Amino acid sequence: MARSVTTQRKIINTAAAWTVGMLIFFPILWTVLTSFKTEATAIADPPVFLAFDWTLENYSTVMERSDYMRFLWNSVIIAGGSTLLGIIIAVPAAWSMAFVPSKRTKDILLWMLSTKMLPAVGVLYPIYLIFIKMGLLDTRTGLVIVLMLMNLPIIVWMLYTYFKEIPGEILEAARMDGASLKEEILYVLTPMAIPGIASTLLLNFILAWNEAFWTLNLTAAKAAPLTAFIASYSSPEGLFYAKLSAASTMAIAPILILGWFSQKQLVSGLTFGAVK
Amino acid sequence: MATQHSRSAARLMMAPAVVLLLGWMLVPLIMTLLFSFKKYIPLRGGDLGWVGFDNYIRFVTSSAFWPSVSATLIVVGGVLIITVIFGVLLAILLNQPMWGQGVVRILVIAPFFVMPTVSALVWKNMFMDPVNGLFAHLWKFFGAAPVEWLSQASLQSIVMIVSWQWLPFATLILLTAIQSLDSEQLEAAEMDGAPPVKRFAYITLPHLGRAITVVVLIQTIFLLAIFAEIFVTTQGSFGTKTLTYLIYQRVLESQNVGLGSAGGVYAIILANIVAIFLMRMVGKNLDA
Fold first, then answer.
1. Helix (H) / strand (E) containing B40
2. Closest partner residue to B260 among A24, A125, A212, by Cβ?
3. Whole-angstrom Cα distance, residue A100 to residue B7?
4. Closest Cα partner for A230 from A256, A251, A204, A215?
5. Domain that holds residue B157
6. Tens of pLDDT along B110-140?
7. Contact A110 B286 (CB under 8 A)
């Protein structure tokens, strides 16, 4: 008897969860579907769900028209560059905090986090001014620096959490076996740290890719990434749903896929270990 | 093994990150503080000297201030209520045995990875447009007159868009917390005849207390800073000018830097009040 109840409950659970899941996912699904419609079908009344002539026309239009590739490339450079630079600066810091902790380690970690809480709009003009003075306005270099600094606390924090889980005894054992410091780092530590570094890389790439305050305010035509490109579609002239959808799909598809791989890190990375 | 030598090496390794973050925090902060005490209008005369607390007083006495406070409260409060309530329900649902749990999880989490400008534009045009939006079609189907969402129900619309973006975050954290709940406790309560509502109220909810607090604190900090969603949809019109957006307009659009900086200082203080509570929780966990 217990079994049949479980199966029945399982069916109800499954139905409920899938319904809710599809509802939440629907705006994304609808965007993807619309991107394969013609502009006329995209605003058809009543709306067409699946039974339309699928076309790739919007994708080619978007890619030809508005220098889409340049925006995409800017996004890749800015998100990738800021993340890599952040990792390079954060690895030694997180490393020393995890393996040579001092009384102040905890305070430093918390202080780093507190810089993340500073509202961007509060320092908008100073940054804007510094950017003008240093010729960084509307450059990829400028955005790489700002986004790196913005995400640095999260990067240090995530790496620290991962490094702390590497047991110190393993290092000692390697030393006992006669490994030199170089060998120790190369053959023992690095392989164990790579998963942690990889997931940190992933989450922060996503965060930088989607960042939409500094990218909108510090770029114009030259260095604008996809966030700004999409925002340029907000003027309501003409019929453009299908093209907007195609552009949107291209901007979010790579990140959605990466994001699905980083579900676990999302929790630990964004709550700073406050929820386990 | 932590010798004097390795200690100084450790300090050296930490130096770049610490110095950079210190600069990133202090330099703009000090500049904002300085500007806030000046009459500083770059396009009309530039730096016109010190004015004491004038800007601070003008910022809070301007006619745009209180509406922006209430808009901020509605957006932050509305999104928090929606994401926490639905987040708890969703987390409980996703924690039940079912088929295809992994796929459902992916579907639910997806909105979090959509860039803010995309979600704002998709909602604005394809759902909330009064002529061609899906909602308009739906309303017409049921014989109702389509709503002009972003002008007639502007704040509610923004709350809805932002809630859609943040529900995955709340759900995911609450789900993680729920999974650490001891299932034997729930089973024991069930055996003793406690109805589901009581099991939820006396076991699940208290267990989630900490996670809910974390969700509320982190989201508050991010929600106070919402920008792109408003920039793309209403540009601050129809009563959607939040504190962040008001400061942005003062600083970059009307280029009244002194006034905007005073607003910025208010925003920093506000965010710090929330941050103190969050840091306390994070700090406690760091000891454990």
1. strand B38-41
2. A125
3. 7
4. A251
5. 4-287
6. 999 999 999 999 999 888 988 888 898 888 8
7. yes
> What CATH number is associated with residue B35?
1.10.3720.10
Q: How many distinct structural domains can be found in chain B? A: 1
Are B168 and A24 a contacting pair at CB < 8 A? Answer: yes
Give the residue carrying structure tokens 């509202």.
A119
Q: Which residue of B has its CA nearest to A113?
A: B279
ipTM of the complex: 0.88
Q: Residue A1: what pLDDT?
A: 39
Q: How far is CA A135 from the centre of its chain?
A: 27
Assign residue B235 a region (left: φ > 0; alpha: ψ between -120 and 50; beta: otherwise): left
Whether the Cβ atoms of residue B111 and residue A27 lie closer than 8 Å to each other: yes
**Which pair of tokens denotes residue B258?**
């002194």
Residues in chain B within 8 Å Cβ distance of A217: 248, 252
For B98, residues 6+ apart whose C-beta sits below 8 A from its C-beta are A10, A13, A14, A17, B104
> Is the dihedral angle over the CA atoms B270, B55, A147, A191 positive or is it negative?
negative
Which residue out of A11, A117, A181 would a mutagenesis test of the B interface target, given it has the greatest number of B Cβ atoms within 10 Å? A117
**Please, what's the largest Cα pairwise distance for chain A?**
76
